[in-house]
């Protein structure tokens, strides 16, 4: 099962290594299988940030070992961005309707 974020990470890793994205498996170990150094991983993350217009936490990169781990980190970033933009207020028209509904009930009583 391949989704958009998995493809983004695989394309970024493949572009950095200069190979086709189909060569990159999601279970490849970044250091052992792909021979990437920590600086290479940071450069890949910067490329993903530029492509997807998000900001990934650099502090969590030392715990990332596989391509799937990098995809999971990107999913967490997307989830936190989506959660941050969820409106925590009631829109004005709803407050207006609720206030008028309460006022009508008071008049009826």
Can you characterise this structure?
The longest helix has 18 residues, at 67-84. The protein has 109 residues and is mainly α. The protein is built from 4 helices and no strands. Helix 1 (4-17) packs across helix 2 (38-52). The mean pLDDT is 84. The relative contact order is 0.12.
Short structural description:
This protein is mainly α and 109 residues long. The chain has helices at 4-17, 38-52, 67-84, 92-108.
What number of structural domains do the residues give?
1
Mean pLDDT: 84
End-to-end CA span: 60 Å
Report the sheet-strand fraction. Answer: under 5%
Please tell me what the overall shape is.
Answer: rod-shaped
The CATH topology assignment is Non-ribosomal Peptide Synthetase Peptidyl Carrier Protein, Chain A
CATH C-level class: Mainly Alpha
CATH architecture: Orthogonal Bundle
- Helicity, in percent? 55-70%
Unreliable spans? none
Q: What is the CATH homologous superfamily assignment?
A: ACP-like
What is the number of beta strands?
A: 0
Radius of gyration: 23 Å
Count of helical segments? 4
The largest pleated sheet is described as:
none
H/E element sequence: HHHH
């Amino acid at each position: 099962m391949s989704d958009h974020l998995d493809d983004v990470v695989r394309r970024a890793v493949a572009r950095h290594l200069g190979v086709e994205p189909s060569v990159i498996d999601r279970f490849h170990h970044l250091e052992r299988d792909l021979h990437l150094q920590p600086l290479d991983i940071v450069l890949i993350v910067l490329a993903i940030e530029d492509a997807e217009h998000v900001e990934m936490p650099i502090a969590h990169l030392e715990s990332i070992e596989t391509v799937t781990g990098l995809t999971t980190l990107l999913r967490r970033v997307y989830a936190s961005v989506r959660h941050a933009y969820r409106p925590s207020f009631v829109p004005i028209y709803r407050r207006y309707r609720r206030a008028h509904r309460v006022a009508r009930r008071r008049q009826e009583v």
